[in-house]
Amino acid sequence: MIPKMDLSLLSKKFRGSMLGVLTGDCLGSPYENDEPLSTASKVILQKSFDKLEGPLFKAPVMQFTDDSAMTKSVVESLIEKRGLDLDDLSKKFVKRYYQEPNRGYGQGIVTVFQKLRGNKFSDLMTPAREQFNGQGSMGNGGAMRVAPIALFCCNDYDQLVNMTKRATKLTHTHKFGVNGAILQAIAIQKSLMMDPKQALNYATFLEDLINKMDVIEENDEEFLELSESEIQPFKTQLRIIERLIEKSLTNENEPHTDEILKLLGNNVTALHSVPTAIFCFLRAQYPIAEINTENPMRRAIQYAITLGGDTDTIASMAGAIAGAYYGEDNINAQLLNHCEAAAEFKELANKLFDVVTTIK
Ligand code: F2R
Ligand code: MG
Ligand code: MG
Predict the structure, then answer these.
(1) Separation of 226 CA from ligand 3 center, angstroms?
(2) 298 lines ligand 1 (CB under 6 A)
(3) Domain with 68 in it: what CATH number?
(4) DSSP-based three-state secondary structure for 338
(5) Tens of pLDDT along 226-272?
(6) Fewer CB near the last or first residue (10 Å), C or N of the chain?
(7) Ligand 1 proximity of 173 Cβ (cutoff 6 Å)
């Protein structure tokens, strides 16, 4: 169970990923549903990040939203139950929602919570299956909360896929919602197990994700007359990421934000947000115009916000992957002081690490 990695580095990566979820969410939520940022707004965002990272800046603490709230339920349940317990997890989701309903939850998912409470948790799976006239939700709610599962399964790919599927289907049964959560989980697990001192090869990273999604999406091949992009949409999006990064590395060809958004998207569906988050993480290892920082983790989160749309969630998912790769040392301590519950998230990451490293 314990991975072959320096455990002190691994524990920093656990904290990095959990704090990446939180900081992306807190920093991104004021911009949720905005248009992509104009040059003037990017300057304001840059100044705001600079101030938050400075030692003397006093500002109200930034509140987290449903992304971190649901992630907190997942990590607490994994710690308490030392594994995935759907009954406990669904109760935690519902309890937390009714305690704090104003965390900006998705409109559809509230119906799942109401039905679960209504049936007294006697039937955990039907409420999600009934969403959107039986189609199930294709929202990114499963992906945005998956980081603790990726950390828990850090050394076991089959367990990761299986656990992510089961945990996601409590609320999201559409294949886009489920496969998006699986892709996000794989990206985090992969980043966690890599050495941040070695160069990150975006093409190799993506090739591995493409091969894995090829197998995961293969089982969805119901209609032979469909094109590959329809049968294997996540695999297709991963190929697009590769082309966009290739293009941006040849200086004169930096893709315009409009092109990125047209191809990858920035909305609340998993298909049009999980690949975008992966793109932000991979692109941000290189400098980006109008983002002035030496820190690639901050760059990933700041870049995700400039793309507009579902900023809290895309920044949070990019933060989860970047944090798993770079570890907590790349998260500014002053900035963390401005994020609600940062100390608690750090503590939860430590407890999860203890569970993972002591399970037989
Ligand atoms: N809900 C939001 N943002 C709205 C604005 C919040 C505002 N700032 C505030 O403070 O109140 N953000 C959060 O929702 C996203 C995660 O959503 P989740 O958990 O997947 O929920 P849901 O309801 O299942 O899906 C979200 C929407 O996607 C559309 N949709 C999903 N499946 C569909 C289907 N099969 N057919 C048609 N539409 C479908 C619906 O519009 C759902 O409402 C995150 O961004 C999180 O931050
Ligand atoms: Mg949110
Ligand atoms: Mg959101």
Answers:
(1) 31
(2) no
(3) 1.10.4080.10
(4) coil
(5) 666 778 999 999 999 999 999 999 866 788 999 999 999 999 999 99
(6) C
(7) no
Domain annotation covers residue 4 = no
CB 148 within 8 A of CB 352: yes
Does 150 map to a domain?
A: yes
Q: Which two tokens stand for residue 171?
A: 């609320």
Could you say which ligand is closest to the alpha carbon of residue 139?
A: 1
For 234-255, the DSSP string reads HHHHHHHHHHHHHHHHSGGGPP
Answer whether 25 contacts ligand 1 (Cβ < 6 A). no
220 — phi, psi (to 5°)? Answer: -90, 0
In short, whether 23's Cβ falls inside 6 Å of ligand 1 is: no
User: In angstroms, rounded to a whole number, what is the distance separating the alpha carbons of residues 323 and 89?
Assistant: 24
**Per-position DSSP letters for 190-230, written without gaps between them:** HHHTS-TTS---HHHHHHHHHHHHHHHHHTT---TTS-HHH
Domain of residue 337 covers 14-358
Q: How many domains does the chain have?
A: 1
Q: Ligand 1: distance of its center to the CA of 340 in Å? A: 22
Enter the tokens of residue 218: 């293969």
Nearest to 131 by CA among 185, 183, 177: 177
pLDDT score, position 5: 85
